[in-house]
């Protein structure tokens, strides 16, 4: 198993997802998170190693050997960002099925609303060490 904890798996072809990763990078100066696209060999390996369903195409956070998906993953990430983003954790008071249904609507329309890429995001040289290959 990969020894790094706090791994974010994301859809590397999705503009919304790539924008979210850029957002996290800017608000994570302590480098709490590392990243891998779901399409990468590392992403596929982690899906297998952590028992995540193989057909997953959603935002995943792996933290201390446990994985979170959809709205739970997003809220756990916010909890560790600098600034007022930490306060979004109060949204956990909303029942997960309701949170995830809203998340699913956005996820199903993400390519239509935000577009997609022909290839996965290439990290900048200063962020390359944050991406698992």
Backbone shape: globular
Rg, please? Answer: 14 Å
State the helicity in percent bands.
Answer: 25-40%
Strand order of the largest sheet: 2-1-3-4
Q: Span from first to last CA? A: 14 Å
Structural class: alpha+beta
- Order of SSEs, N→C? EHEHEEHH
Protein name: Thiol-disulfide oxidoreductase DCC family protein
GO molecular function: protein-disulfide reductase activity
InterPro entries: DCC1-like (IPR007263), DCC_oxidoreductase (IPR052927)
Pfam families: DCC1-like (PF04134)
What does this structure look like?
The structure is a single chain. The model has no long low-confidence stretch (mean pLDDT 89). Helix content is 38%, strand content 12%. Strands 2-1-3-4 form a four-stranded mixed β-sheet, with helices on one face. It has helices at 15-26, 41-49, 70-79, 96-114, and strands at 7-10, 34-37, 60-63, 66-69. It has one domain (7-116). 23% of the residues are buried. The radius of gyration is 14 Å and the shape is globular. β1, α1 and β2 form a beta-alpha-beta unit. The longest helix has 19 residues, at 96-114. With 133 residues, the protein is α+β, with helices and mostly antiparallel strands.
């Amino acid at each position: 198993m990969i020894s790094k904890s706090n791994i974010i798996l994301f859809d590397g072809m999705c503009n919304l997802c790539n924008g979210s990763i850029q957002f996290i990078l800017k608000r994570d100066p302590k480098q709490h998170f590392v990243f891998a696209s779901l399409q990468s060999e590392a992403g596929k390996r982690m899906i297998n190693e952590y028992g995540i369903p193989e057909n997953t195409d959603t935002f995943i956070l792996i933290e201390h050997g446990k994985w979170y998906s959809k709205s739970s993953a997003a809220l756990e990430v916010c909890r560790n960002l600098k600034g007022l983003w930490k306060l979004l954790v109060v949204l956990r008071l909303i029942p997960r099925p309701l949170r995830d249904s809203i998340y699913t609507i956005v996820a199903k329309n993400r390519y239509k609303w935000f577009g997609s890429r022909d290839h996965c995001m290439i990290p900048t040289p200063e962020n390359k060490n944050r991406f698992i290959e």
